[in-house]
């Protein structure tokens, strides 16, 4: 995915880093996308990302992108895929492995949201030609120039 941050016009003595919106060039070659916890937190604070249930919505131009959240940050069993309880040192994850898999499994901890973009949106905005410079969408759908 290729995005461009567009900042609000700077007023005299104002903060030049006030995010106005994000412009989309393309969604890349895959509909799968990982978003770091830090990015999601920062963009939620800026009003660019929202989460409704298991859907992460990235509000950008020309239209908001809707991602199904496949996995959230935390620990997951590599044997059965179950989301494990979070604790400071992973004791609960090790307990799951011992109880459910006789100690013959492992777990992983991820620090990002694993997501999949709506297939129709990906087809509409996927990368088409890498040879040319990307064109960023700076208007909302239906907005006239």
How would you portray this structure in words?
The chain is of the alpha+beta class. It folds into two domains: 1-71 and 115-145, no CATH class; 74-110, no CATH class. 19% of the residues lie in helices and 34% in strands. It contains three helices and ten strands; from the N terminus they run βββαβββββαββα. It has helices at 37-46, 91-101, 119-125; strands spanning 2-7, 19-26, 32-36, 49-52, 55-58, 65-71, 74-77, 83-84, 107-110, 112-117. A five-stranded antiparallel sheet has the order 3-10-6-5-4. A hairpin with a 6-residue loop joins strand 5 and strand 6 (65-71). It starts with a strand and ends in a 20-residue tail after the last helix. The model has no long low-confidence stretch (mean pLDDT 89).
Descriptors for this entry?
single chain, 145 residues, alpha+beta, 5-stranded antiparallel sheet, 3 helices, 10 strands, 19% helix, 34% strand, elongated
Task: Report the portion of residues in β strands.
Answer: 25-35%
* Spatial ordering of strands, largest sheet: 3-10-6-5-4
* Secondary-structure element order, N to C: EEEHEEEEEHEEH
Distance between the ends: 25 Å
Q: Mean pLDDT score, rounded?
A: 89
Number-wise, the strands total 10
Q: Uncertain spans, ≥5 residues at pLDDT below 50?
A: none
Total tally of structural domains: 2
How many helices in DSSP terms?
3
Secondary-structure-based class equals alpha+beta
Major β-sheet, in short?
5 strands, antiparallel
State the helicity in percent bands. Answer: 10-25%
Radius of gyration: 19 Å
Coarse shape: elongated
């Amino acid at each position: 995915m290729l995005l461009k941050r567009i900042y609000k016009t700077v007023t005299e003595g104002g903060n030049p880093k006030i995010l106005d919106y994000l412009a989309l060039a393309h969604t890349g070659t895959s509909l799968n996308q990982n978003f770091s916890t830090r990015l999601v937190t920062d963009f939620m604070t800026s009003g660019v990302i929202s989460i409704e249930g298991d859907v992460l919505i990235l509000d950008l131009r020309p239209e908001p992108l809707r991602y199904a959240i496949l996995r959230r940050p935390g620990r997951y069993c590599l044997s059965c895929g179950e989301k494990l309880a979070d604790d400071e040192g992973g004791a609960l994850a090790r307990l799951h492995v011992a109880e459910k898999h006789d100690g013959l499994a492992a777990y992983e901890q991820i620090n990002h949201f694993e997501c999949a973009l709506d297939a129709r949106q990906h087809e509409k905005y996927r990368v088409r030609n890498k040879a040319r410079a990307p064109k960023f969408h700076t208007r909302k759908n239906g907005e006239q120039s």
